[in-house]
Design brief:
There is one protein chain. By secondary structure, the chain is an alpha+beta fold. It has 3 domains: about 80 residues; about 55 residues, 2-Layer Sandwich (CRO Repressor), CATH 3.30.240.20; about 60 residues, 2-Layer Sandwich (CRO Repressor), CATH 3.30.240.20. The protein has 9 helices and 8 strands. The strands form 2 sheets. The chain has a 4-stranded antiparallel sheet with strand order 2-1-3-4. Strands 6-5-7-8 form a 4-stranded antiparallel sheet.
Amino acid sequence: MEALLVYAARCVVMVLVIWAVSMVLGKKSLLQFSAFDIGILMIVSTVIAQPLVTKDVVKTAVGVVILLAGIIVIGKLSLRSRFYMADYRPSVLIAGGVIKKEELRKNHMSIHAMLALLRAQGYTRVSDVNFAILELGGNISVVPRNSARPVTVRDMGIPVPDGGLTLPVIMDGVAYPDMLEAAGVTLQWLEDELKKRYRCVVADVFYAETDDRLGLYVNLYSQSGEGTGRRRGP
């Protein structure tokens, strides 16, 4: 029984270590990781797994600290101008409508793979592409030719004011004061609008959002399959 508790404690410690590693790496999705990030993750996962099969926890802790220090140092250096290209260098696959064979070779990418990425961006013809840039994580950014880009309101000469953020002010029956403050409205305004427009209170709302023009979108519990709303904590 004691051995089982010790093993459970090791598992909990490893979960906390993995959480710490994810905090250090920052808000990156897996597709945004560089080859360096993925390599470090593989090494860290191997090191972290050691205490689950051995009792050498101290050596594991030292190894994780060293790896995390390496991640932090490389991350800090990549923010300095002289090290910008050390962490990541974009690759221009198409420039001026011309496919760059050398860049495809450097990135081990075939023409078929490049065409698939272009199709995923909505471009079925290379002739419509002015520039195509291979970004971090394998995504591709496309700058189309003027003749192939969508028509904008600027092209049509229609004046349209810039829009602001749309903020969620109610989630799961709870109003969030910080979101109300960011939207420039008060709880009293929100309650008045709910009564006037929807004949309901905050507790009846599953989700609500507002924008800089004070437009209000409301999704009631009754619309989402729960007959009546219930106030719940965040």
